[in-house]
Write a structure and sequence with these properties.
Elements lengths: L12 H6 L3 H8 L7 H14 L3 H58 L7 H17 L8 H24 L5 H33 L6
Helix pairs in contact: 2-3, 2-4, 4-5, 5-6, 5-7, 6-7
Amino acid sequence: MAILQLERPPVNFQDNYAGMSDDELLMTAASRAHLVPEAAHLLDSEMARRGLSYQEAHAKKRDVARLEIQEARKHRSSRKGSKYFVAKANGWMLLLVAVGSPLLVIGLMGFHLVPEEWFFPILSVCIGALIAIAAVQPWLRKTSGFWISLVVSCAVQSIVGYWLSVHLAPQTRGEVKGVGVLTIVPGYLVGVLLFLLLQKLDMGKGPQPNP
């Protein structure tokens, strides 16, 4: 049984080049070194017929590359603008926590706005939050994951601190320091684990394809 082999029709380079616009022909000419000899020869003929030069072809290629770089920079600039907004918002949040926390503690204690057993947990949460914000790298404070983890960490610290304040009732300075550490550390552990989980989920999403 004979097997029929279908041969591909030869490429008509002359018609192909003739149907290109000047810009398309210049871009093709910029990559002349990659063409087969027959295609390169016909390309030379078409370029001469239109009065185009290979200097124009290389200039066209540089212009296209420059435009692509500019578009990429614009895209990066828009992303940097959003990051700058986040950084600016985080700066105000940092100032609010640093200044507002001591004022909050003083106000709650001075005006007796909360039960006495909550004084120590609130003080521990404020100290723990200030230490966390001051200790981490600046780039971490620019991520939403850090602030979400900090809020959860503070919630854990307040619960643990309240339990310790009610059941241990520290009296001496040494007891207060020990209970303070026991209050802050569990919150840090939960916050770190949550932050790592959020970072892992964010990395798992990967770059989204452009529509």
